[in-house]
Write a structure and sequence with these properties.
With 333 residues, the chain is an alpha/beta fold. Helix content is 54%, strand content 8%. Helix 3 runs parallel beside helix 4 and helix 4 packs parallel to helix 5. The protein starts with a helix and ends with a helix.
């Protein structure tokens, strides 16, 4: 998800920003003149280092990047841009006099989205630029939709002071547990995002049930148990949330098959949902609720361990508890 602080720096009526990177001033001026036919503002950089600084500060919508530059070459600049959260969805077009297949393979591996050969033709540059900016606008619309989803998740917490920051804590602890069990970075990102919106379906549950100071009746419990399915329906239209849907739907499944909504058991339950379930359970146990005070960490750990193989994945419980104990010993999770 794009950082909302970055999005806040851009006005909706502001033209797209194109960053032109080339160590030759004449080439930069030529490309800037060609881009006068496109509704955009042009930023320029003469070195890879300067390009990275402008990229971090100005957040362009498209980068036209020369390959053969002194110092940081275009391949390395592209690699660094694409490695940042805000750079993943920014199109990078490599402009090069190199036409060997292996050069293009290196560019693709660095994250380049398109190529142009020197000398650049004006009509081709304009067409490629407009195409890339349309693609970026599509990405941005998805990111905007995702921000709406996160705003709804925050609205769920705002309903109830007892659960304030609960989902943020669950997201962060889920990511840490995912790291502990060796998941790759892409899955860690999904754990963080999924943990933060796992309870979004509660937006459709009446406040009288969410904030009830006592135990729920059987009818109220059934109503509360609708929230994973409601959450999945809310998030499903969001294309960038595909990997979050199993977390939202299945975070209340139980390892022994007694959970909801689908009664999955064991490894039938998606791993990400099993991870969030452990972290969600611990945070719920240690948080004060209208119907009970929060338990101590020691008490919560005892409950998790009693629930190994019944409510929660036993291996994940062990990894979670080991992480807590490691943090207690070293101060680092």
């Amino acid at each position: 998800m794009a950082d909302p602080r970055l999005v806040a720096n851009r006005r909706s009526d502001e033209p797209a920003r194109v960053l032109v990177v080339d160590d030759h001033p004449i080439n930069r001026q030529l490309l800037q003149a060609y881009l006068a036919a496109v509704d955009c503002s042009v930023l320029t950089a003469g070195t890879g280092t300067a390009a990275l600084e402008i990229f971090a500060q100005q957040h362009p919508d498209l980068v036209l990047l020369d390959v053969d530059m002194p110092g940081l070459d275009g391949f390395e600049v592209c690699r660094r841009m694409k490695s940042t959260p805000e750079g993943r969805l920014v199109p990078v077009v490599m402009i090069t006099a190199l036409n060997q297949v292996e050069d293009r393979v290196i560019a693709l591996e660095a994250g380049a989205d398109d190529f142009m050969s020197k000398p650049v033709e004006r009509s081709e540059l304009v067409a490629r630029t407009r195409s890339a900016l349309r693609l970026k606008a599509t990405y941005d619309s998805l990111e905007s939709a995702e921000r709406v989803i996160y705003a709804l998740a925050a609205a769920v917490e705002a309903k109830d002071s007892y659960t304030e920051a609960h989902t943020q804590r669950v997201g962060l602890s889920s990511r840490r547990l995912g790291e502990r069990v060796g998941l790759p970075e892409s899955e860690l990102d999904a754990l963080l995002r999924g943990g933060m919106i796992h309870d979004i379906g509660k937006i459709g549950i009446p406040d009288a049930i969410l904030q009830k100071p006592g135990l729920l009746t059987a009818k109220e419990q059934r109503e509360m148990q609708r929230h994973p399915e409601l959450g999945e329906r809310i998030a499903r239209p969001l294309g960038s949330a595909t990997d979050l849907l199993p977390i939202i739907r299945h975070h209340h499944e139980a390892y022994d098959g007694s959970g909801y909504p689908d009664g999955l058991r064991g490894e039938e339950i998606p791993l990400a949902a099993r991870i969030v379930s452990v972290c969600d359970g611990f945070d719920a146990l240690t948080s004060t609720r209208p119907y009970r005070p929060g338990r101590s960490q020691r008490e919560a750990v005892e409950i998790l361990e009693r629930g190994r193989g019944r409510q929660w994945d036993p291996d994940l419980v062990d990894a979670f508890v080991d992480g807590l104990r490691s943090k207690d010993r070293t101060g680092v999770a």
